Amino acid sequence: MEQWNNFKYKPLRIEDVQACQIRSDQNNIHTLNRVESIVLLRLMTCYGRAVSRDILLAGLTSDCALRVAVCRLRKFLKSNFRNVVSIERRSRFGYSLSLLSR
Questions:
Q1: Architecture of 2-99 per CATH?
Q2: What is the pTM of this model?
Q3: Sign of the C-alpha dihedral, residues 34, 40, 45, 51?
């Protein structure tokens, strides 16, 4: 899993995948829980393309765990990255990580 350390998608960078740490462009380090970290990494690695629910659910305990993780990630992104990064729902498919204009 260490190969994902320092993986970057615009303002987000995986600082330490095992510790579930994300670094922002302002060099702030944020720690997420394991499920949030997994979902965010999967969204980041697709560079803004839609990721299916099946892919996001792989290895998670339930659909509810995915919905809770997405909700928490949206709040985290909004409070720490303002209007730069968001998670968008792709109807009947899954989610994507979107970079918004400043």
A1: Orthogonal Bundle (1.10)
A2: 0.90
A3: positive
